[in-house]
Amino acid sequence: MSRSASSTPDDPGQPESPTPSDPTQLVLRRAPRLSVFLIGGALLGVIAALILNGTQEPNPDFVEESALGFFMVTLAVPGLALGALAWLLVDRRSKKRARTVYAEPTTDYDNADFALGSTDLDELRRQSRERDAEQ
Q1: Which domain of life is it from (predicted)?
Q2: Cα distances (angstroms) measured from residue 118 to each of 15, 35, 68, 108, 124
Q3: How many whole angstroms separate alpha carbon 2 and alpha carbon 72?
Q4: Which of 11, 97, 113, 125 has its CA 20 to 30 A from that of 91?
Q5: CA-CA distance, 13 to 30, in Å (whole number)?
Q6: For position 120, what pLDDT does the model report?
Q7: How far apart are CA 101 and CA 121, in angstroms?
């Protein structure tokens, strides 16, 4: 798929000019991955089960492996819950650090990858008004 401008039917030699539009306001933030926190919490529960099973005296009524499996399931679920809680706290913190950027359509693809802050946007609008006044 090419990125060249298409021609208008009236004048086939002239490329189509981009439609002027206001920049789009976007919120940019780094969001944590939920799966990492859930897996980490479950692994902590499994490690706690291994430690708990290793420190307990063996019960003659149960096989040691069945007790380990019971502890793993019993402690992995609270580990998942703690992982989810940790994710919520980190996600809330990432929302506080979110910033606003502005995006604007362009046909100059070589210089398109940059972000504008609100002061940059005001400067861009001023320059655009000056260019329009000169024409």
Answers
A1: Bacteria
A2: 31, 35, 58, 22, 10
A3: 55
A4: 113
A5: 45
A6: 75
A7: 9
